[in-house]
Amino acid sequence: MKKNPYLVNRDSRKIVTASGEPIELFKHRGSRLCGSNGELNASSKEDLMKQIGVLIDSYQKGDLMREPESAETVAARREIVQAALEDKTGEQWAVLGEVLGDEIWTSLKREGFARKVLLYKPLGKGEVGRLRIRKKDVLAFMATTAAGNPQSIARQSYVYPAEFYLSASPLIEIKEIDSNPGDILSEKYEDGLEAIMVGEDRVFLTLANAAAGVSNDLFYFNTFTPAAFTQMRTQIARWGIPVTTAMISFDLWDDIIADSGFSLWFDEVSKYTLITEGYLGDILGVSIMTDAFREPNLKVLSEGQIYFCGSPQNLGGITQRTELTSEPINKFQVAQPYRGWFLYQVEGMAIANSRAICRGQRI
Question: What DSSP designation does 34 have?
């Protein structure tokens, strides 16, 4: 995407206390959670896992939160919107849409589950979207639309996922510019992120749910224990597929820190910026990912859910025909007082091997 002269200056990773102070000043039971070096304070692996639990729990309770925009920033952005609205050429309005698209695209690559566990393949002009099959005679699942996912037996060397649109239409009512005291651009960013990033992750989870019970057992548990972890991991590993990622709902971390057995396997990550992006560390070489630090409308995992994923080259991929693109919308000609943008991208997605996915659920 083109570089834009207008900067929204949004840093979705920055977490502060409920009173607006830096996270380094946040205390739990009399001790600061983080050091000035940006790392969680912990005396051992087991203690670090507990501190990560405190970080998650504090965010869920609202003791920690995303940093609110300053009044000066909100006022400046409102002026930018007003100036873009008054620009008769429409160029400034189009640029604002590119700003939103740039930020949504960045968040999609940094925080989206699908792009962490699947191969990513951009397509050139005229190139056919296809994904290589490492193992033939397995069931593959491909998205035909954002809601469809037919299954097929992969007998050839490639699968050819159909392409579909992910789109959003964040609109601003004209009177909203003067009457809305908040940050209009951030609100439209959230609307677009919900439609694009959450939409893509939900396509992936739809495919994952369809594929997970085909070659591997659905796994149900009351408490998530090291035994449950290894049994789910083995479901995939027994096929000779490396297990690289587990996506967990935030509440399962309580089970992990409650069982000291996990601390023996835990390879720590202590930078809270990485943790608040959803990466909690590795257990037996499996990267643990969560959406605990997403806003409520951006979460895609339900309580008690966990998905184990094989390596991307064995699991499947995303073929990207068109990166996120923004086109300005003007509804004045149909007698509606709205301006906005149409954001869209064209992609294909497939889980090419049902053996590379395993799903678990707390009951």
Answer: B
